[in-house]
Amino acid sequence: MERSRVARWAAPVAFLVAVTILALVLRAGFEHGKQHATRPTTSVISKHKKKTHSHAHPKQHVQTYTVESGDTFESIATKTGTTVARLKELNPSVDPNALQVGETIKVQ
Fold it and tell me: How much is the pLDDT for 61?
């Protein structure tokens, strides 16, 4: 009679242990996947980073920004960490009062 009591509880206990281990393994896998999913996204500036083919400075990079609706030189300078004066210097042919959505300007 003692064996039947053990046998009656052994299977459900083993099942619960197996389900608990499976749940812990799955949870650890999802948390590991979350770490990769929450990596910082690249900024707008680095998305538009382009290499120049300058002979004087072969490692020089030109960073550009694509104008969005409502942008001004002031807002772009704030977003990109530069100054309005620097934007004007880098983009002498661009009229700061007539920016067009989709227009690409140099920011560095």
Answer: 76
In angstroms, rounded to a whole number, what is the distance separating the alpha carbons of residues 73 and 99?
Answer: 9
CB 60 within 8 A of CB 94: no
22-40 pLDDT, tens digit each:
778 777 776 655 555 445 4
Could you tell me the residue ranges of all domains in the chain? Answer: 1-39, 44-106
Tell me the CATH number of domain 44-106, given options 3.10.350.10, 2.70.170.10, 3.40.30.10, 1.10.340.30: 3.10.350.10
Tokens matching residue 92: 């002498």
Degrees, nearest 5: CA angle 70-72-75: 95
Higher pLDDT pick, 41 / 91: 91
**Burial class (CB within 10 angstroms; exposed 0-12, middle 13-18, buried 19+) of 55:** exposed
CA-derived radius of gyration, the chain: 30
Q: Mean pLDDT, the chain, as a whole number? A: 76
